[in-house]
């Protein structure tokens, strides 16, 4: 923080001293456009001036066009002259004070690499247009034998992105892409090679999703006593099979592992009555809870229920939001 100093024995009024020092900080770019000025309380503690005096100085700075006040947020240095840019003046700067700085840095980098202003403009507009069109239709393709994995991805993506997401059998993806002018294809890394082979000839962007590492759940299952029974309930039969293989690799035959999909009522009831621990994905969890409740009279000790909060990794969700212009 810049240290402002007030000379109490000066002939120059204290408010004028502070005004000129802040104006110099702005002019010398120590306080660049978009910078948030200290609160009146913080400045009062630093200078010894009354907060009313500082408020008066801030009002004068605003009247002279050096700063602007954003209700509930604070006092910010205004962009001067061309700095704001015709497209970045209020209200955008009021909502995103650092917007101009970010755009300017990106533009400076392009110009530094030899790009002309017209070329930079085309690049910005093309990327914005691309993201707007791609976010209009998001497709999730999976093999038809494991549509449950796709249902799980769609469930989580719609919750996170707040936009419609379409599930497509991989065998039908080419036909679907023939009927659309723009879309973004999103799928798990398990299926990425097959999906890219279909989408690449059609110049459609494909974004791979990393899956959650399940470290918390696996660490718990490593500590279970021998001969315990573990139930795995998932929309995806592939995920359930994969979990069974991983658990066998960790514990061998020490644990009995039972798997099912939530729609398989008979198997789900068997798991509820036999398992000490049931691990379920978020979408299947209500069905597991209902099955436990329905079997309460037939079981001595209810199983411990573990809900896995996500199948898709958090970083992948954030990347996808940014790619689609939704962040």
Automatic annotation (TrEMBL):
Pfam family, one: GntR
Molecular function via GO: DNA binding; DNA-binding transcription factor activity
Gene3D superfamilies, A to Z: Winged helix-like DNA-binding domain superfamily/Winged helix DNA-binding domain
Domain HTH gntR-type, chain residue ranges per copy: 12-80
Keyword Transcription: yes
Family annotation (InterPro entries): Tscrpt_reg_HTH_GntR, WH-like_DNA-bd_sf, WH_DNA-bd_sf
Matching PROSITE patterns: HTH_GNTR
UniProt keyword Transcription regulation present: yes
UniProt keywords, alphabetically: DNA-binding, Transcription, Transcription regulation
Name under which the protein is recorded: GntR family transcriptional regulator
């Amino acid at each position: 923080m810049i240290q402002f100093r007030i000379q109490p024995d000066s002939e120059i009024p204290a408010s004028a001293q502070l005004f000129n020092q802040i104006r110099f900080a702005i002019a010398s770019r120590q306080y660049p456009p978009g910078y948030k000025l200290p609160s009146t309380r913080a400045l009062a503690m630093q200078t010894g001036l009354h907060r009313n005096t500082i408020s008066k100085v801030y009002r004068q700075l605003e009247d002279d066009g050096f700063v602007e006040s954003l209700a509930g947020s604070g006092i910010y240095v205004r962009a001067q002259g061309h700095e704001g840019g015709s497209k970045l003046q209020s209200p955008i700067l009021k909502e995103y004070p650092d917007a101009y700085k970010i755009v300017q840095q990106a533009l400076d980098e392009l110009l530094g690499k030899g790009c002309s202003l017209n070329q930079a403009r085309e690049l910005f507009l093309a990327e914005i247009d691309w993201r707007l069109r791609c976010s209009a239709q998001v497709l999730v393709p999976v093999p038809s034998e494991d549509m449950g994995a796709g249902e799980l991805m769609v469930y989580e993506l719609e919750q996170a992105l707040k936009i419609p997401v379409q599930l497509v059998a991989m065998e039908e993806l080419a036909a679907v892409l023939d009927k659309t002018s723009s879309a973004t294809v999103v799928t798990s890394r398990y299926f990425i090679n097959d999906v890219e082979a279909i989408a690449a000839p059609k110049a459609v962007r494909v974004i791979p999703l990393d899956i959650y590492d399940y470290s918390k759940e696996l660490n718990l299952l490593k500590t279970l006593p021998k001969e315990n029974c573990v139930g795995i309930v998932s929309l995806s039969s592939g995920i359930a099979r994969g979990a069974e293989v991983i658990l066998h690799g960790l514990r061998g035959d020490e644990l009995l592992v039972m798997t099912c999909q939530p729609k398989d009522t008979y198997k789900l009831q068997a798991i509820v009555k036999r398992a000490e621990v049931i691990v379920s994905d978020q979408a299947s969890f209500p069905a597991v809870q209902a099955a436990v409740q329905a079997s309460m009279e037939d079981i001595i000790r209810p199983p411990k229920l573990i809900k896995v909060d996500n199948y898709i990794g958090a970083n992948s969700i954030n990347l996808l939001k940014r790619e689609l212009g939704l962040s």
